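Chapter review: from sequence to fold.
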Amino acid sequence: MDLKQYMVDTNAVRYRVNKAETIKPARRFWSKAMSEVINGESVIFLPQEVDRELTNQSFSFIEFENSPELNNIAEIKEISEIIPNITSQEIEELIIEMSAYITARFRKELTAVTAVSKLKYPSIPDARILCTSWQRDCVLVTGNISDFILLLLLESPEDDKLYNILNESYIKIPKELHSEIHSDEVFAGYFQKLVELIGDL
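The token string follows.
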């Protein structure tokens, strides 16, 4: 049996304790994921970028004695495997540029099928997370879907690869739109270059 591989974004960790409106759906995900880990059905990865962000955020939690946040982070790290970022500066910049292009060129179509109204391109940290999740063949778990729309175009449209922890559902792009975007000459050029850069790592 193939293990399901989850890669969790920073907010997916913190939503478990830090916002009233996010606690219930986040805890349902984590309860399910932790049960799967215990049963040998899945593994949870924290990319180095998320580990770094959690470490930096923890300084203020320590200073203000925020034990719920600190205990939550410690518990998640205990059941997770911290893995290296799979990326480079050139790849990160390309991912950001690709994302900026598709969220401008195909904004109306992508908004209609994803129900994400504020599409945007990712930050450098998010580009690292996106690339690492793609290369490790993970399900990326996040509450910031708009930062990771490009991931849906790097995967097959049939695959469950982007999970919205807030509404507890996988985000998908229909085959027709997936094909239309891949047929776009500008996107196709970006995609070919990205695959080449990944191959050089």
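Two observations follow directly from the output. The beta strands are 4-8, 42-47, 80-83, 139-142, 162-164, 169-170. Residues 20-38 form the longest helix (19 residues).
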